[in-house]
Amino acid sequence: MGLFSKDIAMLDDLFVHTLQDIYYAEHQITKALPKMIDKASNPQLKQGFETHLRETEGQIARLERVFEMHGEKPKQVDCPAIDGIIKEANEIAGDVADKAVLDAALIAAAQAVEHYEITRYGTLIAWAKQLGRDDCAAVLAETLAEEKSTDEKLTQMAETGANARAEQVTEPA
Ligand SMILES: [Fe+2]
Ligand SMILES: [Fe+2]
After folding, report:
1. What is the CATH classification number for the domain harbouring 99?
2. N or C: which terminal CB in the chain sees fewer CB atoms within 10 Å?
């Protein structure tokens, strides 16, 4: 979608475009999470990523339902924002030597992803309601609840152990 192509005329178009954006983002996240599962050392973190991978697959199915409810075919449009967040996560993960520090970095990267999703779903729910699609808003709200809960679990893992374990790592002599 070019900046000046003016394909988005109405709020309804913007709603559909943003659905396509998050539909792409969720697919990219399902590709990124297996790498994060591999890199995580803490079993609780690994398990958390695995659970969220399953949830993300369900979220893709939920989006397909919303497209259908709204009379649209599921379609992805490039989302440079999620590409950037995932690229940065891969870069930092590649630069971290110690496992405990890597876990702290992975949590931070995952939280950036969750916060992106939270802003997108929050907006989509508001627009769906504005457009009189409370049915779509209700389905999207199920996903928003999962993203928020994932974010909270990550905060808890960071604050109850992962950050402290990372801090104990000393510089190699
Ligand atoms: Fe998601
Ligand atoms: Fe998520």
Report:
1. 1.20.1260.10
2. C
Ligand with minimal distance to 60 CA: 1
Closest-approaching ligand to the CA atom of 147:
2
Residue 1 token pair: 């979608």
91 contacts: CB under 8 Å, gap ≥ 6: none
For residue 103, the enclosing domain spans: 17-167
* Dist. CA 169 → ligand 1 center (Å): 32
Q: Is the pLDDT of residue 68 over 60?
A: yes
Residue 161 per-residue DSSP state: I
Q: Amino acid letter at 61?
A: A
**pLDDT tens digits along 99-148:** 999 999 999 999 999 999 999 999 999 999 999 999 999 999 999 999 99
Q: Which residues have CB atoms below 5 A from the ion given as ligand 2?
A: 117, 147
Distance 120 CA to ligand 1 centre (A): 10
- Cβ contacts of 14 within 8 Å, gap of 6 or more: 8, 127
Chain-centre distance for alpha carbon 19? 14
Residue 109's nearest CA partner among 38, 33, 160 is 33
The number of the ligand nearest the C-alpha atom of 114 reads 2
Ligand 2 centroid–CA 8 distance in Å is 27
At 80, the pLDDT band (50, 70, 90 cuts) reads very high
